[in-house]
Structure formats: C-alpha cells, structure tokens
Amino acid sequence: MIIDAHMHIWKRIKGRVRNEQPVLALGSGKIRIGDEEMLGMPASFVDCSALAEYVLAEFDAAGVSAGVVVQEYLDGPQNDYLLDIASQHPERFFMHALPNFFDPDMVQDEAGDLFNRGFRGLKVCGGHLLGKVSLDDRRFFPVWERMESEELILSVDFSEGETQVPEFENVMKAFPNLKVAIGHFGMPNRGGWPGQLELCRYKNVYIECGGIIWLYRSEGYPFKGGLDALRSAGQKIGFHKIMWGSDWPRTMVDFTYRQSLDFIFKDDSIGPEDKAAVLGSNAANLYGFKMSEPVKRVPLITEG
C-alpha cells in the first residue's frame, strides 16, 4: 500500500506570499507573484485548478492508495473545498486545515472551528511566518494543547536552515506527545540538517519527503542526492520515521508524478521492509488509513 504523505489540491488560487504579495492565476498553469510570471503547475491545468479528480487519476495510474493533503498560503486557504472532497472520498484523503497564523489572537478560535467542522490536522507554513510570527508564541499553545490531547496531527514546513528549530523545540518540550510531520524532508541541502531532522527524536515526530525532487531537481531523475539523503536519514532516525510525498502538482512542472515515486520505489539499496514503511505503512499508522491491498499500477504504453 502506497500513501502520498505530502500533496496539494485546490479549487481556485487565491493566495498571498508572506501575507503581502497576491498570487494570481493566469491560466494554462501560469501564475503571477508580484511582477513575476511562472509556471506554477503543469500547463495542462488550463484553468489553474488542481482538483481532486486530477490527482486521483495520478494515484490510480501509479498505484497509490491515498494521499495526505497539506495547504499553502501560496494557493490560499482551501478549507471548504477540502471538507467537500473528504466527504466524497473519505478513504483516500487525510486533510489538513489552514488557519491564518498571521493573526495569532484569532488562531485559537479559527482552529477550533476547523476542528469542529471535521478536520483532524492543521498546517503551519513556517517559511511564510519567519520574521513575523514565532512558532512558540504563547497564543498558539491552546491549539497545540488540544491537538496533543485529541491526537490531531500538525504538518509543519520550516524555513530554510535551522532558524525556526529552537522555536519548535519549545513547542515540543511543552507538548512532547504532539503528533507532527515535518515537510520538505527538513531541507537537507538548504541548511536544515541536522536541526530539523533531529526533531524526530520526539516520539510522535515524523519527517516526509514531499518536495525532495524539487530540492534535488538539478540532478534530474533518479535524484541520487535525494536517495543519499533518504538513506542517511534512515540510518540516523530510522526508516520508521520517514514518509514519501510527491508535493503534487507543483513538482510536476519538472518531473512526472510517477518519477516522484519511482526513484524510491525502484531503488534496490533500501530493504523491502524499510521501503514499504517509507512508501505507505508509516503514513497509514500516523494518519489512520486502513491498510488495504495495493493499487495495481497501469502499465505505460512506452513499456510495451
């Protein structure tokens, strides 16, 4: 069973960067941030919507059973859309809510409402908050307390480097049983190690490699540096703490969805039990997915 532990879906882009510059959808996968235009998703996304139906098709083709949806201020909050999709496909998605952490005075009420509406996870976009809001702000503590007591799951992407690690250490010292998934593999080639990786010493802190093919994009498939980082992390914290993620659909401007999976799936240097843990069983245990028979991959026409 394979689970994508870091991917995005959105109905309509309505985002901001660091709560200032708007992110505008231009069509055919293009977005504008400030004065810059860029391809923010595959060009085939003609209306710039990354709908659940699109990624479910990718899941079924690549043999992926389920996905963990995280959010980004870059896209804008998608809370209503995610709840709607969760009701349609409860067995295939775990959804993280996105409150406005730029307004610490209101986060407790907003997060509480999102949990009451059915979300079992929360996303913190640490890089956007850097220099504006501290992760260990005491106004967030009631949120972390509820999440720890109800076994809700916090997804957090830190900024590059280790600047935010001491802040989050303070959170974990206060709430040592909080369930956490660190995104982007802790930025191994952007100065994030060892600090971000070492947070996994806490019992319920995991790390997922969503975006790892972005970090090592200059190497191209099969991302040797990414595999080296994966094996190194396995030796340091154990493969039972690592989860695979694709960061769909942004990383698909460079590589295919199947390539984001196959560089691990087809690698023989990681043992079968460890590989099965990274690709699915760790995420199933953390997010509560029911283990099921693997989804059969669709063969490629170029393989025949």
The general outline is globular
Name the CATH class. Alpha Beta
SSE order, one letter for each helix or strand: EEEEEHEHEHEHHEHEHEHHEHH
What is the strand tally? 12
Name the poorly predicted regions: none
Mean pLDDT: 97
Which strands sit side by side, in order, in the main sheet? 8-9-10-11-12
For the sheet with most strands, the description reads: 5 strands, parallel
How helical, in percent, are the residues? 25-40%
User: How many domain modules?
Assistant: 1
**By helix and strand content, what is the structural category?**
alpha/beta
The Rg value, from CA coordinates, equals 18 Å
Strand content bin: 15-25%
Amino-to-carboxy terminus distance: 25 Å
CATH-defined architecture? Alpha-Beta Barrel
The named CATH superfamily: Metal-dependent hydrolases
Our count of helices gives 11
Q: What is the CATH topology classification name?
A: TIM Barrel
Question: What would you say this structure looks like, in words?
Answer:
This protein has 11 helices and 12 strands. It is an alpha/beta fold. The strands form 3 sheets. It has a 5-stranded parallel sheet with strand order 8-9-10-11-12. A hairpin with a 3-residue loop joins strand 2 (15-17) and strand 3 (21-27). The protein starts with a strand and ends in a 17-residue tail after the last helix.
SSE topology sketch:
Elements: E1 3-7, E2 15-17, E3 21-27, E4 30-33, E5 36-39, H1 52-62, E6 66-69, H2 79-88, E7 93-95, H3 104-116, E8 121-125, H4 126-129, H5 141-150, E9 153-157, H6 165-174, E10 179-182, H7 195-198, E11 205-208, H8 212-215, H9 224-237, E12 242-243, H10 257-265, H11 272-287
Parallel strand pairs: 1-6, 6-7, 8-9, 9-10, 10-11, 11-12
Antiparallel strand pairs: 2-3, 3-4, 4-5
